[in-house]
């Protein structure tokens, strides 16, 4: 009888130990996506060709509030589309630092159509013109590497799978009705902060070839908006925009600057100012907030009634509610964007 009791206690102890072990494994794998969240895997999810894609090419794990707002706003505007956030610092074995909360990461993870995956550049560049460049380049000595690697990654992911790429400082306000498009930053000058194509579009293949052939990381934007602009000029003869109307060349739409850049980069501070009447942005699909220009570290402050605060309140209410505090509280910093 005593032996049976001892055996029962040993079995119970083993079961408890097994449970605690599983609990420890799950808690240490904080950033692992639950199977029910992403049953198809990254490639199958992207392969649907309808994804909205964001990238983080630094090792940063906690998105600033502007990044959170960009992803949340896209998830709200495109509820039937997967919103995929590829993060270089993310892996299945990432451990939480002591006493960290990762509020923004948790917020985005809880949104039904937002999916967070590791960014594996080497695998992403396979079967593209970028692979040989990536396997030979020394990232540690490259100037502007965070931006250059982001410029390359966005070309590869949209060429391979199709969909819409957006920078992490782009706030979505209404759906983009185009499949193959570039966003004009100014007349005859293209941005690469927002673009969309069907999978295997030849324009993006040409962009990747040009990226490698004319690679120069010392010039900021040479592999990004400058590349898109020079390729667009090869692709077609650009005219000037007439009022708020888009241009079309072959099967690519070149969208008017009002669609994403109603406030030009030279006036980026206006987002952080109080307006007598907030603009409607009726001609815009999304707003690029020019975070690269924000070297002053201007932030969104609750109760400030600035344009950007009102945009947060309307288009990313979860981010506004959970991450934005008043002037006396600490505010999630906007400074130091790894991606424009």
The CATH C-level class name of the domain at 42-94 and 101-259? Alpha Beta
What is the averaged pLDDT score?
A: 86
What coarse outline follows from CA principal-axis ratios? Answer: globular
Helix count, per DSSP?
A: 11
Radius of gyration: 23 Å
- Going by helix content, strand content and strand pairing, the class is alpha/beta
Helical content class: 25-40%
Query: How many β-strand runs?
Result: 10
Distance between the ends? 72 Å
Order of helices and strands: HHEHEHEHHHEEEEHHEEEHH
Q: Write the CATH fold name of the domain at 42-94 and 101-259.
A: Spore Coat Polysaccharide Biosynthesis Protein SpsA, Chain A
Major sheet size, sense and barrel closure: 8 strands, mixed
Sheet with the most strands: spatial strand order: 3-2-1-4-7-6-9-8
Uncertain ranges: 19-36, 330-338
Shape-level CATH architecture of the domain at 42-94 and 101-259 = Alpha-Beta Complex
Beta strand %: 5-15%
In short:
This is Alpha 1,4-glycosyltransferase domain-containing protein. This protein has 11 helices and 10 strands.
Task: Describe the protein's architecture and organization.
- The model is unreliable at 19-36 and 330-338 (pLDDT under 50).
- By secondary structure, the protein is of the alpha/beta class.
- It is built from eleven helices and ten strands.
- The protein has helices at residues 2-28, 42-46, 65-77, 103-109, 121-125, 130-136, 145-161, 202-213, 225-235, 307-315, 317-323; strands at residues 52-56, 83-87, 114-118, 163-166, 170-172, 181-186, 189-197, 247-249, 252-255, 286-288.
- The longest helix has 27 residues, at 2-28.
- Helix content is 35%, strand content 14%.
- Strand 8 (247-249) and strand 9 (252-255) form a beta hairpin.
